[in-house]
Amino acid sequence: MKKSATKILANNTEINLYCFIGEAVLKTQMVEQALSYSITLKMNPTETKERADECLKQNQSYTLGKAITIAIRENLYNLSLQDELNVFLKQRNWLIHKVVIGNEEDFNAGNIKEELLDKIKSISDKAESIQRLLEYDMIDFCSSKGKDMPETQALLKLQEQGIRIRK
């Protein structure tokens, strides 16, 4: 006969931890998505929409590390952005693969340290910053190809101010 496990409710600190990790993972995925679009756009600027969509589908299957490797190999970004991406990749890898390592006793005791929450929150903040850098880089790239981008820039500025845009 199967024993039923006793469920222990999460305390507020644990709930914060779960929320911070979820936010950081979501924002990291948004960086991956922006990177996929950017790589597709920069490597296929003259392709038809149909062909570009095929390339995007392939690029969306890349891990963050693979996408960054391609971006650097193809010299798609300035050195500053490349460095930001490399640093962020290390932070993301820690979040996904090692956040528990070294914190097991604290997790088991329900004693989550503020420093850990701060580190996870900083990854969320960095992801958001890199996403913006990628978005502005795409706008600059499109402008350099003769596309009219003021409306897109205005929408991005509104988003930075916390104004949600719905279509």
| Rg on CA atoms, Å | 20 Å
What is the count of distinct domains?
A: 1
Helical amount: over 70%
Query: How large is the count of helical segments?
Result: 7
Overall structural class, as computed from helix and strand content, comes to: mainly alpha
Calculate the terminal CA-CA distance, rounded to whole Å: 54 Å
- Enumerate the spans where pLDDT stays under 50 for 5 or more consecutive residues: none
Mean pLDDT across the residues is 89
Determine the strand fraction and express it as a percent band.
under 5%
Description:
- The mean pLDDT is 89.
- The N and C termini lie far apart (54 Å).
- The chain has one domain.
- By secondary structure, the chain is mainly alpha-helical.
Structure summarized in a few sentences:
This protein is mostly helical. The protein is built from seven helices and no strands. It is elongated and about 65 Å long.
Helix-strand layout with pairing:
Elements: H1 12-43, H2 49-59, H3 64-73, H4 79-97, H5 104-109, H6 114-144, H7 150-160
Helix pairs in contact: 1-2, 1-3, 1-6, 3-4, 4-6
Quick tags:
mainly alpha, 167 residues, elongated
